[in-house]
Design goal:
By secondary structure, this protein is an alpha/beta fold. The protein has a domain at 37-203: Rossmann fold. It is built from twelve helices and ten strands.
């Protein structure tokens, strides 16, 4: 019965709007009472230990592959680490001195399951043992050179106002959940040491809000005045799109590029490449998809080009000169 109700809400646009407003209100009330627990970012809860290790390695190798950095070093901030600190551990193994784990939410996790994942990582990478204290490896608190930061002060827009000197600031599927990505990007750029890197994989889709029952750009139809009341408390996608990240990079004077990871109506682009390097027939297919649905877009998106709207995922690689 409950699953049928959820399916009906998803398929009924007006009902979905009401549901998202109400659930967001409750999330705000919980946050005001100090409850920052969330089921978001719990990717490892559905994976075996072996699959979790492979996931951690893939994320870490993506940072290396698309940054062009052969070996990481210095201080790192990982924004939105979710329910596992395996990626941060690989930064330490690579030669970094410290990793700050920064998240305004606390992703729920199964302690026993996490211990299994960490033991698998320690078995595969024995050098990680020097970062382990005397306690069982159940969460990030037991590892040396990792420091946790949670809650409102750890929102990226706030944290990097006072925490600086980073050689790398990284994230995966986090920017789309921020209150103000442009402000966060500005703060991060200032928080970098000279020569430091920003490495952020950003999912520009709706995370299933409407796309499970409608077309994948349906969330761009919600009026601008209403959308924040559906998203800010829960951290649902903020609708900051490709062109805004490009404009922010230009404004901040950051050198680097935005690599496209996904196109609307097409799917994943792998390896990730600049928009102009995507085969012409795929770009044409995606812009045609956008043109077919954009007549109902909210006012703020009607003047954005088909090319820019078509990009539904990016990998931001930027360096501070």
């Amino acid at each position: 019965m409950r699953s049928e109700l959820r399916s009906w809400i998803r398929s009924n646009y007006e009902a979905a709007l009401s549901y998202y407003v109400l659930s967001d209100l409750f999330a705000r009330l919980r946050a005001s009472a100090g409850d920052i627990d969330t089921t978001s970012g719990t990717v490892h809860s559905t994976l075996s230990a072996e699959d979790s290790v492979r996931y951690v390695e893939r994320v870490f190798e993506d940072y290396k592959r698309y940054s062009g950095v052969q070996q990481f070093y210095g201080r790192v901030a990982e924004v939105g680490p979710g329910d596992n600190c395996g990626v941060a551990l690989l930064f330490l193994k690579d030669g970094c001195s410290k990793v700050d784990l920064v998240d305004r939410f606390f992703s729920k996790r199964n302690v026993r399951s996490q211990a299994t994942i960490y033991k698998a990582l320690l078995l595969k990478y024995p050098a990680l043992g020097r970062f382990l204290g005397h306690a069982e490896p159940v969460d990030e608190a037991v590892f040396r050179s990792l420091e946790r930061h949670y809650g409102a002060r750890a929102a990226a827009e706030n944290f990097f106002l006072t925490n600086t000197g980073y050689d790398f600031i990284v994230s995966r599927a986090v920017f789309e959940h921020m209150y103000n990505p442009s402000s966060a990007l500005s703060c991060m750029a200032r928080a970098l040491a000279p020569g430091g890197y920003l490495l952020h994989k950003i999912d520009l889709r709706d995370h299933g809000m409407f796309s499970l029952a409608h077309h994948e750009l349906k969330f761009l139809e919600v009026p601008a005045w209403l959308y924040p009341w559906m998203t800010k408390g829960t951290g649902r996608p903020n609708r900051v799109m490709f062109h805004e990240y490009r404009d922010a990079m230009n404004r901040l004077g950051l050198s680097g590029q935005l690599l496209v990871t996904r196109l609307a109506g097409v799917g994943d682009i792998s390896p990730h490449v600049p928009y102009e390097a995507i085969p012409a027939h795929l770009r044409a297919k995606s812009t045609a998809y956008v043109r077919a649905v954009r007549h109902r877009f909210a006012t703020a998106f009607r003047t954005v080009s088909d090319d820019d709207i078509s990009v539904t995922g990016v990998f931001l690689v930027a360096r501070k000169d």
